[in-house]
Design brief:
Layout lengths: L7 E3 L8 E3 L8 H13 L4 E2 L17 E6 L5 E6 L5 E5 L4 H14 L9
Length: 119
């Protein structure tokens, strides 16, 4: 299966052209950054609902837990609760059937994000 580049992930569905660089922690702790990327190595995603590492203002660093949501390649909305120390608690939610088609379209165009080297 086609892979997204390890340091870049698709954010948003096919209507969005946003692909972000996730090679740096941004506003999160290094433990949280590593935990999210490690999570996706064993739980690939079609696209993320947002960028949990995005800074509002340069230099922002938040040392609090956060929820990271993403869509799986088969169309399920999933997410993880990430603590400041990098502990991850998975939360899987049900999804509507149209998300499966959307995820397949994103995967066909961009590939799957799994934190592994890709084209």
């Amino acid at each position: 299966m086609k892979q997204q580049i390890a340091s870049r992930v698709k954010v948003g569905n096919c209507l969005s052209k946003t692909v972000v660089d996730v090679s740096v922690p941004g506003c999160r702790t290094a433990a949280q950054h590593n935990a999210v990327l490690d999570w996706h190595r064993s739980h690939p995603s079609a696209f993320w609902a947002g960028n949990p590492f995005q800074q509002e203002v340069p230099g922002d660093v938040f040392r609090c837990s956060f929820y990271h949501s993403y869509f799986t390649p088969d169309g399920r909305l999933a997410g993880v609760w990430v603590t400041p120390t990098g502990r991850v608690k998975p939360i899987v939610r049900n999804s509507a059937p149209h998300f499966e088609l959307e995820c397949r379209a994103v995967v066909a165009r961009y590939g799957v994000f799994s934190g592994k080297a890709g084209a």
